[in-house]
Design a protein that fits this description.
This protein is an alpha/beta fold. It has 14 helices and 15 strands. The strands form 3 sheets. The chain has a 7-stranded mixed beta sheet, with helices on both faces. Strands 1-2-6-5-4-3 form a 6-stranded mixed beta sheet. It has a two-stranded antiparallel sheet with strand order 7-8. Residues 191-320 form the Methyltransferase small domain.
Length: 379
């Protein structure tokens, strides 16, 4: 989202990768501290930092401590707190999401001015040109304001993009820029790799390819012809780059919604797992409003499947534990789509949040199971 906002000097563009509304105005104070910036933030006014970059990061850290209520740590602890949260699980999830959004909006009120050509002209500022080019592409001609918290995220994402993420199941690295979901949760990749052992699929579709990791895994396991699809331009560019790095010339990528033309022996999809509204482009890989992508994929898969072929769906049951989806939702979707289960492979998540007792959703994450559903056309 971008918009022009008044600053007392001139109107200037405000950029924010989330769906948050822009501030009503922005100010350039000679001096500012965390309390003053927060006071202005609660009045919907952004503060543009013009001092030392490292001091700005310290102020942002102080703001984060202040916007997190002291009572949160206490509630996140003992069994009584867990029992209280569990009484209304769905409400707990939505309250957690709302708090995250509110805190993010307030923290994003500390901004910096990015000059023409992606320059940041404040003392001890790093060179941010490459990080911003990763996000925006062509350098800007006019200055714009950017939340410092997001700029730090862009810088971190750029470093990860250069370094890449080691994928044991692939035997290589996947490089992911900002705006494309990173395959940090490798347990579902292990399920796919196990299912591919001994398979003889000749053609495959990877629906919603994202970074291209699943398509690459299919290619590494000997599927000769693969088509990957996505609607996100950043994902399409990212996947193409990864296929080139891995020297995979048997994958075609198309910018299209769900299915390409034709049929395949294998159709794989790892859709967003939670039926909720995303608050940014990258969250579209996590949240699927009203399960629209999930149902669209399942309802269209049989028409694109060769005889004797399989549909593979990667899905977590976290939504069921959060009471966002009924327990019989998936079986009903399979039946409606004229698909039946041939096999289910399952594993437990291994990421840090799964074992974090202080996570607000720990009561659900602790029971989460990730499944690979191998589906066939119903007889």
């Amino acid at each position: 989202m971008s918009n022009l906002i008044p600053t007392g000097r001139t109107d200037i563009e405000w950029r924010n990768e989330s769906t948050q509304k822009p501030p009503k105005a922005a100010v350039y104070p000679a001096e500012a501290n965390a309390d003053k910036i927060l006071k202005a933030a609660y009045e919907h006014t952004a503060t543009v930092w013009t001092g030392d970059f490292h001091n700005a990061k310290q102020v942002l850290a102080a703001m984060k401590k202040r916007v997190k209520r002291p009572s949160e740590k206490k509630r996140a602890g003992g069994g009584d707190a867990v029992a209280e949260r569990s009484r209304n699980i769905q409400t707990a999830f939505h309250a957690h999401r709302m708090k995250q959004a509110q805190q993010s909006r307030i923290l994003n009120m500390l901004a910096v001015e990015i000059g023409a050509g992606f320059t940041l002209d404040i003392p001890r500022a790093p060179d941010v040109k490459a990080a911003l080019a990763d996000v925006y592409g062509k350098p800007n001609d006019a200055p714009f304001l950017l939340p410092l918290n997001q700029l730090l995220g862009f810088i971190g994402a750029h470093e990860w993009h250069k370094k890449g993420v080691e994928i044991p199941a692939l035997g290589g690295r996947i490089h992911v820029p900002f705006g494309v979901f990173s395959p940090l949760r490798g347990e579902y990749l292990d399920l796919i790799a196990a299912a591919l052992a001994g398979s003889k699929f000749q053609t495959a579709f990877d629906i919603g390819t994202g970074s291209g990791i699943i398509a690459a895994l299919l290619a590494k396991h000997g599927v000769p012809k693969i088509t990957a699809t996505d609607t996100n331009p950043r994902a399409v560019a990212c996947a193409c780059a990864n296929f080139c790095r891995l020297d995979l010339d048997n994958i075609v990528i198309e910018k299209t919604d769900l299915f390409p033309a034709g049929c395949a022996d294998l159709i794989v999809c790892n859709p967003p797992w939670l039926p909720a509204k995303p608050s940014s482009a990258v969250e579209a890989a996590l949240y699927d409003p009203e399960s629209r992508m999930l149902e669209g994929f399942l309802n269209g898969a049989a028409a694109h499947l060769n005889d004797g072929g399989e549909v593979w769906l990667v899905m977590s049951d976290l939504a069921e534990h959060l009471h966002l989806r009924e327990q019989d939702f998936l079986p009903q979707c399979f039946q409606t789509a004229s698909l039946e289960i041939a096999e289910v492979l399952q594993t437990r998540p291994k990421h840090a949040k799964a074992a974090d007792e202080n996570d607000p959703l720990a009561f659900a994450r602790g029971r989460e199971v990730t499944s690979l559903y191998r589906l066939k056309k119903a007889v």
